[in-house]
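Protein in question reproduced for absentees:

***
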Amino acid sequence: MTDSTTKPSSPRSSWAAKYRGATVEDLDPPPALSIKKTDPITHALMSAYERDYTHLTVISDDKRVLLGYLTIPKLKELLKGGEVREDDSVERAMHRFRRRGRTYKVITMDTPLEDLEAFFDGDGTGVSQDFAVVTDVSRKFVLGVATRSDLEEFAKRRPG
């Protein structure tokens, strides 16, 4: 017997049904490939091509602090448009994380996939994202990168 006063299911409940308790770890994200901000762009391109990565994390030269990231499609656009050259440092083309005045959503291997999807959809920020840097809980170590396409492929493979 159903209750006619039951509210329609929320997007969260449909996500929960789609992912059935899966976490980021279930995506089996590849290890992050970090490059230094002073590395030449050619090094970043070669590293990405060798591993078929679309996103690279950028770290400081000395303390390995996460500074930002490079997206290879955007980097190709910058090269094609002449905004950067292959012998320029990665720092000229990277997207820097803004640390002051912003709260970052921590994505760990234990993050539920519905929360990852909400992050990609810009839940709370209004800005959609194509990838997430997966860290440990204390954000000291970059463990991997999860992309929106990783999540979509996972959902397709799940029996409905």
